Amino acid sequence: MGSFAGELDNLRERGLYRWMRRVRDARKTVAHIDGKDVLLLCSNNYLGLADHPLLKEAAILAINRFGVGTGASRLVSGTTDLHCQLEERIARFKGTQRALVFNSGYAANTGIIPALVGKGDIVFCDRLNHASIVDGCLLSRARLERYPHNDMSVLRRRLEEEGGRGRSLIVSDGVFSMDGDLAPLRELVALKREFGAMLMIDDAHGAGVLGRTGRGTAEHFDVQADIDIHMGTLGKAFGSFGAYAAASEEIIDYLVNRARSFIFSTSLPPSQMAASLAALDIIESAEGEELRHRLASHWEFFRDGLRAAGFDTLKSETQIVPVVTGDPEKTMRFSAELFEAGVYVQGIRPPTVPTGGSRLRCALMACHESKDLQKVLELMENTGKRLGII
């Protein structure tokens, strides 16, 4: 067997080596990481629900009643009352006929897409879509057409040239996880109607956060009924774990029979179903509305402060605020200096982002305090100037 040491050394030399930090209390705004207390500014726990008493209580009660695992896949003996209740709630939440729970966002995308399209079909995929979407497209063996980020004129041209050959699927993130901007859903809906394509939106970073009632990017653009497949995750704003597809009765029934990541996986434990149900209760309540307003206030304040200091935050319009640095080595130095000063912001480098697009990915949470964010802005400005980023 060949050695991988040389390739690892090459990653280190190029500033692309990755390692895992040991984290304690990551569900809070202050986490204990590698023996040090730091303000956490890179968690997807957007509404702070991962530590919410109602979610913890629901999970404990479910464990006491149902145990810690189901022992089987959904089509064998792994479908509990809680799985059915959660799917019914998600369907109502997203305004669809049915929903189906998957074990993770990655499992959902690599299950849904290959089930819907295959050889002889075509997928139109935004170039900045999440890796799990791209992998789902590749697994499908359908023809893959990747269009420039949010470029509807190019997508239209590709649909005109390539559409009509079997099934056509347009798939896009709702909120792009590294840039923090939104997909133009109204334009995507118009194109899917014009060319008879299916439209799938991965709203992992929008569900629970965007829209008047937290139903996500589609509600934000008022096109909920026009999306064929709503995909979302339960481990971000919902504070729990898992993912879902929400769609018509026909599509969900088809996924039950064809989505391999659903068919061949032991089902999620009851505790996660119960926690997700509790999260939905909060998101649809006055408390959830207050958390969304607080989060929106935080991200606008923080993004505007970074821009005023001279940082490039791209076209962010959500709780994900990138700080472009360009160079991988400089990115990690920036992240390391912030960590030493008591702030943890993760550095993002290729292949997660394109070459030249290295950045710090800041993620805001409703449970952050404004005074802490002001201190971070001052620290980042001083550090950015010293490193020659601004």
What layout of secondary structure does this protein have?
Elements: H1 5-13, E1 23-24, E2 30-33, E3 36-40, H2 53-66, H3 81-94, E4 98-102, H4 105-116, E5 122-126, H5 131-140, E6 143-147, H6 152-162, E7 168-173, H7 185-195, E8 198-202, H8 217-220, E9 229-233, E10 243-247, H9 249-258, H10 260-263, H11 270-283, H12 286-309, E11 320-326, H13 328-340, E12 343-344, E13 346-348, E14 358-363, H14 370-386
Parallel strand pairs: 3-12, 5-6, 5-7, 7-8, 8-9
Antiparallel strand pairs: 1-2, 2-3, 4-10, 9-10, 11-14, 13-14
Helix pairs in contact: 2-11, 3-11, 4-5, 4-9, 6-7, 12-14
Task: Describe the fold and architecture.
- The protein folds into two domains: 20-46 and 286-386, Alpha-Beta Complex (Aspartate Aminotransferase, domain 1); 54-283, Aspartate Aminotransferase, domain 2 (3-Layer(aba) Sandwich).
- Helix 3 runs parallel beside helix 11, helix 4 (105-116) crosses helix 9 and helix 12 (286-309) packs parallel to helix 14.
- The termini are far apart.
- The model has no long low-confidence stretch (mean pLDDT 95).
- 43% of the residues lie in helices and 17% in strands.
- It has a seven-stranded mixed β-sheet with strand order 4-10-9-8-7-5-6, with helices on both faces.
- The chain is of the alpha/beta class and 390 residues long.
